């Protein structure tokens, strides 16, 4: 690689500072949901997509000084009203399943539970059942069997407040520690225990597949559009409301270029190759790989042989990591790319390979 490029990468551009990959804008002028969406598309990107509890806080902050929030977001009922199963914990793909015989299609049973043999069952959401929480910040004890019986939505709220979420995804459900907890409990009085599995017909207006929902307790599934309130999400068909837009700062370029070409393209046309500093940003970026035309997508991750470490071209230190394997060093002319499918892990790839790439705006 030319020394001029090495200096450009290591020194960075004067304006090369990282920020939020997307930001929210609060518009207080009341409009219908459709009018609000057109406004957001014309002036920003779309109506707000909410991916996690952190976004819920960011939305409230964007609306500062508003004492009672009731504003449109991008969540709405799809036209065909086909229900899909999702995981409560954001960012998990719903692919392989473990349904019991005759399960997953019962009418009016839209929440998931497990039997003691770990088979999944569909269940009514308003029944009071025990449930299992997952805590990602406690490495020694990640699973909590909660004997207190709650409806599925109240169980979800409890887990998000006290831990991280309801237990979700095959990796968690197949964890040996969880199996040990389940084997030690007597399921006979309970029959079923809630997990983070639910089915609905709601979609985000930007077409993303984010499964995050945080309904208020008096949530109704009969309306068409969702609003954000002080305590969560509600559905309504009201005529006009204020609304939240979002501004996307990440763009997928579906041209195939070498890493160096991608770097110059992003810095000339946008801002820089994208930087990913945490799991929430990883989930935001990986959602866009669905439209990629190559098996990997370049990021702003670069390895320096001279100094022997990975770094972001934005000058960010590599703290959060999502490597496919820990051994991603000791080779020159390598940069980091995200896999388009699977778990969207990071892989080291030779600079001269040609992939799509992510620019930050």
UniProtKB/TrEMBL annotation:
C-type lectin domain ranges (all copies): 24-134, 143-246, 246-360
One protein family per Pfam: Lectin_C
Residues in the signal sequence: 1-19
Listed PROSITE patterns: C_TYPE_LECTIN_1 (PS00615), C_TYPE_LECTIN_2 (PS50041)
Keyword Signal annotated: yes
CDD domains, per the entry: CLECT (cd00037)
Keyword entries, A-Z: Disulfide bond, Signal
InterPro entries hit by this protein: C-type_lectin-like, C-type_lectin-like/link_sf, C-type_lectin_CS, CTDL_fold
Domain of life, source organism: Eukaryota
PANTHER family for the chain: C-TYPE LECTIN DOMAIN FAMILY 20 MEMBER A-RELATED, C-TYPE LECTIN DOMAIN FAMILY 4 MEMBER K-LIKE-RELATED
Protein name, as recorded: C-type lectin domain-containing protein
Organism, scientific name: Oryzias javanicus
């Amino acid at each position: 690689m030319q020394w001029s490029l090495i200096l450009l990468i290591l020194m960075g551009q004067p304006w090369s500072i990282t920020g939020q990959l997307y930001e929210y804008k609060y518009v207080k002028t009341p409009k219908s949901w459709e009018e609000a969406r057109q406004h957001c598309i014309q002036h920003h990107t779309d109506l707000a997509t909410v991916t996690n509890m952190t976004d819920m806080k960011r939305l409230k902050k964007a609306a500062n000084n508003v004492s009672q929030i009731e504003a449109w977001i991008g969540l709405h009922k799809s036209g065909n009203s086909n229900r899909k199963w999702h995981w409560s914990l954001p960012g998990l793909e719903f692919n392989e399943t473990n349904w019991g015989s005759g399960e997953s299609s019962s009418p009016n049973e839209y929440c998931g539970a497990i039997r003691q043999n770990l088979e999944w069952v569909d269940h009514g959401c308003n029944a009071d059942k025990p449930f299992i929480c997952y805590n990602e910040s406690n490495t020694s004890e990640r699973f909590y069997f909660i004997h207190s019986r709650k409806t599925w939505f109240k169980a979800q709220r409890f887990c998000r407040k006290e831990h991280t979420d309801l237990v979700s995804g095959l990796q968690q459900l197949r964890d040996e520690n969880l199996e040990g907890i389940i084997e030690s409990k007597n399921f006979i009085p309970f029959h079923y225990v809630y997990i983070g599995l639910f089915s609905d017909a709601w979609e985000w207006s930007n077409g993303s597949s984010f499964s995050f929902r945080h309904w208020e307790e008096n949530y109704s599934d009969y309306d068409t559009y969702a609003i954000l309130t002080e305590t969560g999400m509600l559905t309504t068909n009201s005529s006009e409301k204020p609304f939240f837009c979002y501004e996307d700062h990440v763009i997928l370029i579906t041209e195939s270029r070498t890493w160096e070409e991608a770097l110059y393209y992003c810095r000339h046309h946008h801002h820089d190759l994208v930087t990913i500093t945490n799991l929430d940003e990883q989930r935001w970026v990986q959602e866009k790989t669905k439209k990629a035309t190559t098996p990997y997508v370049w990021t702003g991750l670069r390895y320096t042989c001279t100094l022997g470490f990975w770094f972001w071209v934005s000058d960010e230190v590599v703290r959060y990591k999502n490597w496919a394997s820990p051994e991603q060093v000791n080779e020159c002319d390598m940069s980091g790319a995200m896999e388009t499918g699977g778990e969207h892990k990071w892989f080291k790839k030779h600079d001269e390979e040609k992939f799509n790439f992510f620019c930050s705006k």
